[in-house]
Amino acid sequence: MNVSDSILKRRSIRKFQSIPVAKEVLEKLVSLGRLYASAANAQPVRFAIVNKKENCDVVFENLNWAMFLPDFTIEEKSRPTAYILLLSEKEKSSFFEFDAGAAATTVMLAAEEEGLSSCCLKIPRQDEMKKVLGLEGYVPVYAIALGQGAIQSTVIPREESQKYSVDPQGNFIVPKFRTEEVLIWSDCK
After folding, report:
1. Smallest Cα–Cα separation from 120: which of 134, 106, 131, 130?
2. pLDDT of the chain along its 189 residues, tens only?
3. Predicted TM-score of the model (pTM)
4. Which of 50, 25, 179, 183 is nearest to 111 (CA)?
5. What is the domain partition of the chain in residue ranges?
6. Which of 15, 22, 12 is nearest to 114 (CA)?
């Protein structure tokens, strides 16, 4: 799969099959993820792999899923089977947010190439996760949920709202701007 195919295929998936992700694949994703484009080459992002069920449950419970869909639920059998957490050291680098976005995108595209679905979520309840997962000295900022997808996600042209929805089969419908709506030509016409 080439990069364009990974970009076109990768969508945020929120329901997964109960198939574990191999440790070697998770290590490969981190190895590739560490090569993200870093502002000033500061490289402030650290990675934590979570793949034991009891720890995955802790991560799952400390995330907010599908914020635009208040009635959306994820049954236990449809939860991610692994996560890669993006961590900041206690003193957050001024480059962290930029770098975290680049690192998350790199990991998710690499996951797509491995046949895995992903969803990147901000971690709102960091203290509980730090304590249970033994992450003292680090702040878990983002979680990339990983696994074999159990649903699909389809892009449609964005009209009035950015809010995604779910079709009758449980698949996500995600509005995105058209190219001509985001492209601003400068003096290079």
Report:
1. 106
2. 788 988 989 999 999 999 999 999 999 999 999 999 999 999 999 999 999 999 999 999 999 998 888 888 999 999 999 999 999 987 667 889 999 999 999 999 999 999 999 999 999 989 888 988 999 899 999 999 999 999 999 898 999 889 998 899 988 889 999 999 999 888 765
3. 0.92
4. 25
5. 3-151, 152-189
6. 22
Residues 93, 188 contacting (CB under 8 angstroms): no
Residue type, 25: V
147 phi/psi in degrees, rounded to 5: 160, -175
Query: Which CATH number is correct for 3-151, 1.10.3720.10, 3.40.109.10, 3.30.70.920, 3.20.20.450?
Result: 3.40.109.10
Give the span between the Cα atoms of 79 and 103, in whole angstroms. Answer: 23
Query: Could you write out the DSSP letters of every residue in 66-97?
Result: -TT-TT----GGGS-SEEEEEEEESS--TTHH
- d(Cα 29, Cα 99) in Å, to the nearest integer? 16
- Taking only the tens place, the pLDDT of each residue in 48-97 is 999 999 999 999 999 999 888 888 899 999 999 999 999 998 766 788 99
Q: Which residue matches tokens 């003292």?
A: 136
User: What is the CA 90 to chain-centroid distance, rounded?
Assistant: 22
CATH architecture of the domain formed by 152-189: Single Sheet (2.20)
